[in-house]
User: What shape does this take?
Amino acid sequence: MQQLSGQDAMFVHAEMKGLPQHIGGISIYDQSTAPGGRVRFKQILAMLKTRTHLSPIFRRKLATVPFGLGQPYWVDDPEFDLEYHVRHIALPKPGDWRQLCILAARLHAIPLSRDKPLWEIYIIEGLDAVEGLPKNCFAMLLKVHHAAMDGAAGAQFMNVMHDLVPKPVEVEPAPPWKVAPASRVRMLGKAYLDAWKKPGQVFRMVRSALPTYRRIRKGYREHEFEPQDEAPRTRFQGKISPHRAVDACKFDFEDIRAIKNAVPGATVNDVMLAIVSGGLRRYLDSKDETPAGSLVTGCPIDVRSVEEKTSGGNMVGFMNVSLCSDIADPQRRLQAIQQKTTQAKAYAQALGPRIALDITDLIPGSVLAVAVRTAAATGLAESSVMFNTIITNVPGAMEPQYLCGAELIDATSLGPLVPNVGLFHIVYSSVQNKKGSVKLSFTACRQMLPDPAFYVDCLKASFEELKTELVKAPKPVRKARKKTSSKRD
Assistant: This one.
């Protein structure tokens, strides 16, 4: 038995009808690199069966504390059935990118069963009409509950299923699996002891509040950061429907880096924020809905220490960043975003990057669950706007990876929606086919964003605008003329 942290449990309590809280992605593989040039579904099942002991996510499920007196626990599922979690399907013909996105959106909208381990895998065939892919590719769509891992932990989880060479690697045999039954007595005993610790936790938080207050006042006084304007209300704020839309676009990493280098102090993340900012501006302009003020994004940040890098679960801080979408000029917009992200990082540091972890560990699970549901039922969650969208960065593979010998050649990430925020972006950097790329994907409420392909066009146009404005085209190299000597007769 392992108790969920407060932040892990928050994703359990925040899950409501129409708002499943799982993350995942679509990975696409080229079968030609596998032994014999083909991967069969039974090979994938056999591989997973030999590796389920390498991550606790595979075989554990949730167990709640009686009367909601404590945070839930992870316990082994004695009825774990691998073939329930791994399914084999195919796209209808012709099998193009649009159909893959529609299928992914429908599968991603379905919540995971709470009485099973909180993950699913779909092996999807029939991708032959997806532009840019070799023939006989297949996809793997993965869903894992956010309570089990965040984006950084997800990268570690993906490593369990992949090899670094085409030939499948044999792993150490699994030790005998002993299922430890969930003990209600232990849960209640732990809840009783935790209750005695709460006053001490509250005291420590109150004691740290004064230094935090001083750091923030100093930051404002020395103009390390400025008060942020309230986020405007857009079509992406309001009640979230149970239906989803997903899509993505890919950029060459060298192009992103060239744009970054054109603005002193800018980062790759700043460039991606600028692309989203310009894309949203174009999209809302087309609907005649562009607000006068700037849009604001929420940016999750990994707060793991060096010792915690391999830990699972969630260790995420948060910062709000202005997207400066009210600035028309793309170069000035990127410069402004660079300043805003610098200020947001300074504010997060002054506030304490792990404060979100401390607060969620302090609030009892039953209280948090009631608060979340009450806010949703009464409309309180939709009464104010903290941010208009979420943009998070997920680390990708920096070297070739193989699933049963099939090379991973493309990946698209999928995220969850939260109350009052119907658009979620993920920036995924990776190296595939010896070439660096940045994939920008999004998950949206289908009622709020009914035309995902058009939004992709807006994002691409935003990128091209930045590239044209900031990256000088190399001058053509002129070949030197050969000197000719004239001979007299």
Q: What stands out?
A: The longest helix spans residues 184-221. Confidence is low (pLDDT under 50) at residues 484-489. The chain has twelve helices and 15 strands.
